Vacuolar-sorting protein SNF7 (Podospora appendiculata), 227 residues
Amino acid sequence: MSGVWGWFGGGAAAQKRKDSPKNAILGLRSQLDMLQKRERHLQSQIDAEDATARKHVSTNKNLAKAALQRKKGLERSMDQTLGQIGTLEQQINAIESANINRETLAAMEKAAQAMKQIHGKLTPQNVDQTMQILQEQNDISEDIANAMLNMNPNNTIDEGELEDEMERLMQEELDQKMLETGTVPVSDEVQRMPAVANGPLKGKAVAVEEDDEEAELRKLQAEMAIS
């Protein structure tokens, strides 16, 4: 029970400390307002005594002198009041600045506590260690995927089958060119053809060359006949 009362008491004391600058400023401003009213009242009295002295300075010197004496007393009170006003204004400014500094520092302390709570045990060393662990796990995952891929028998590639497929594609391309042009294209592909293509393909090439020679011979005979 005492703890509960202590808690309430502590909260009230903290609130009182928090409100202390505000209450001080309110008190100073109230006093300042009173002094400013006094300043205005004294100024009106000074003006009145000055007017009286001016009015009787030629006709009644004693009355004019008495008015000037009262004016001097009022001016001393005015100087004292103006000094008090200046002091109060300085105090108000000082308290306001101090209170702003305190509130700013309190806000910064709260921000520091929030940052500390957010970071917790987070340090550059912990970050580096975590990133290293992640990289290791990624490497392990990649190794596992590669191992599972190599276990699949369908992924085994026969180099001999690849060579046969390449030769078949080259032969098809060569046959297509022969059908389109009617001649055997002289290219690196023909020079690199393996022995299996030197059978019927070679015979076709010789036949085409003989046809070309006969055509050239007939063309020559025709030119000679014309001449």
In short: Residues 2-120 form a domain with the Helix Hairpins fold (CATH 1.10.287.1060). The chain has two domains: 2-120, 161-226. The radius of gyration is 57 Å. Confidence is low (pLDDT under 50) at residues 1-9, 195-201.
